[in-house]
């Protein structure tokens, strides 16, 4: 799934490619507790999910610094495509061979990996020595059934990205704060350009701000109800359909939807998109943003109930079967410290999860980073259930059918709800019903 979570200039990149390799450490079979000894020894295989070109250099620099501080620990860095990373990790962990010691996991994968027994609990270990400093939203993504199985590395959220010059040409002074305002602004821009002003990704993740805006959600975990086909969801779909049918927006249900959306925005064909910080480096490479200050970012507009955007990001997890837990936890502590996060943020324009990192001069002096603070304040936690990430597969399929006109909103959402029910009542869990 494309992620993963603004009014100002931005150039944020974060996202996803991954890797696989076998753990080969030789010591540290148990956690050390609260202190990270410089004498620790072992090998840590690290699967990274950052972009290998734009982001990996910052992590490799931190790894080099770590190995200087802890000469007894060798870090083996590996990278593989994000799309296959979760399954690659699951396969290796299930087989007891080839899993990494430390894995940069999408936040949506953590509950399922923890439920399966693949992750080491980190409570009371060096990896969580400064746990109280983490932002509440990202910290919540590390929990499963009361225990901590990850540390939050970067956070993100969807915002409204827009072309300031096209807004100005249409006489628009500020980003819209409601979907109704967005439609009005988009039609004003279309009157000037002759083209739909906003390009909407068809993936269900990008629909969540509309769903949250009407007070809806995919599921209600407290009652074990699937709520994706609620009246609120139907209303949210109606807002999207109205934007498209009015000519204010365009969408794409092809396999190249995301690429086509990005190309339209960065070349100036579309004036607005809903996207996250990971996209902005690509945006700023386009002809529409030769002047980088032309890129505006605002919080997603509000629906009739509120404004809301899904929490995204990446966590660091430790493989429960690792032979190097001591070294693993020390490595996680180092590479995810507030100082390290500020360094990564300054080099990669990713959003830190440490509160202390946000007051570091490397972050406070970066307008790109500080611009996202209003956006992440509107983020909404996704369901902290093992099957949470898997719900997007039937959701994506159903959204494509609805937006392509093959089924009505209610029929499509009802089908999505039934397919989500199959995912939830999977034999490991049960008792879910459609609300």
Automatic annotation (TrEMBL):
Residues 1-19 form the signal peptide. Transmembrane segments: none annotated. One of its GO terms (molecular function) is maltose binding. GO terms for cellular component: ATP-binding cassette (ABC) transporter complex, substrate-binding subunit-containing. InterPro entries: SBP. One of its GO terms (biological process) is maltodextrin transmembrane transport. Keywords: Signal, Transport. SUPFAM superfamilies: Periplasmic binding protein-like II. It holds the Pfam family SBP_bac_1. It comes from the Bacteria. Belongs to the bacterial solute-binding protein 1 family. This is Extracellular solute-binding protein.
């Amino acid at each position: 799934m494309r992620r993963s979570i603004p009014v100002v200039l931005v150039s944020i990149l974060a996202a996803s490619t991954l890797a696989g390799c076998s753990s080969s450490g030789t010591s540290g079979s148990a956690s050390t507790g609260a202190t990270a000894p410089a004498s620790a020894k072992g090998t840590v295989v690290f699967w990274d999910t950052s972009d290998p070109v734009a982001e990996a250099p910052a992590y490799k620099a931190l790894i080099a610094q770590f190995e200087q501080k802890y000469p007894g620990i060798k870090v083996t860095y590996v990278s593989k495509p994000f799309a296959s990373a979760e399954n690659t990790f699951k396969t290796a962990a299930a087989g007891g061979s080839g899993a990494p010691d430390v894995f940069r996991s999408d936040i949506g994968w953590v509950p399922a990996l923890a439920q399966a027994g693949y992750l080491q609990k980190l409570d009371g270990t060096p990896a969580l020595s400064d746990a109280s400093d983490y932002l509440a939203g990202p910290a919540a993504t590390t929990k499963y059934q009361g225990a901590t199985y990850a540390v939050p590395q970067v956070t993100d959220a969807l915002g409204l990205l827009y072309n300031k010059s096209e807004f100005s040409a249409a006489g628009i002074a500020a980003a819209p704060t409601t979907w109704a305002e967005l439609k009005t602004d988009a039609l004003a821009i279309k009157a000037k350009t002759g083209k739909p002003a906003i390009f909407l990704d068809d993936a269900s993740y990008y629909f969540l701000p509309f769903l949250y805006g009407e007070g809806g959600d995919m599921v209600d975990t407290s009652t074990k109800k699937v709520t994706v086909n609620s009246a609120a969801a139907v209303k949210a779909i109606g807002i999207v359909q109205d934007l498209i049918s009015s000519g204010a927006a365009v969408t794409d249900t092809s396999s190249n939807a995301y690429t086509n959306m990005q190309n339209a925005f960065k070349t100036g064909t579309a004036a607005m998109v809903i996207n996250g910080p990971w996209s902005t480096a690509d945006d700023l490479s386009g002809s529409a943003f030769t002047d980088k200050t032309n890129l505006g970012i605002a919080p997603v507009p509000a629906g009739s109930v509120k404004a809301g955007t899904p929490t995204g990001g990446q966590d660091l997890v430790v493989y429960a079967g690792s032979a190097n837990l001591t070294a693993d936890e020390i490595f996680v502590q180092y590479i995810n410290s507030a100082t390290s996060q500020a360094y990564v943020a300054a080099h990669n324009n990713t959003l830190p999860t440490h509160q202390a990192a946000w007051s570091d001069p490397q972050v406070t002096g970066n307008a790109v980073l500080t611009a996202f603070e209003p956006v992440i304040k509107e983020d909404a936690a996704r369901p902290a259930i093992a099957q949470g990430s898997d719900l997007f597969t039937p959701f994506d399929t159903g959204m494509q059918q609805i937006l392509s006109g093959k089924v009505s909103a209610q029929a499509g959402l009802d089908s999505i709800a039934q397919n989500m029910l199959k995912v939830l009542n999977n034999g490991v869990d049960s008792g879910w019903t459609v609300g």
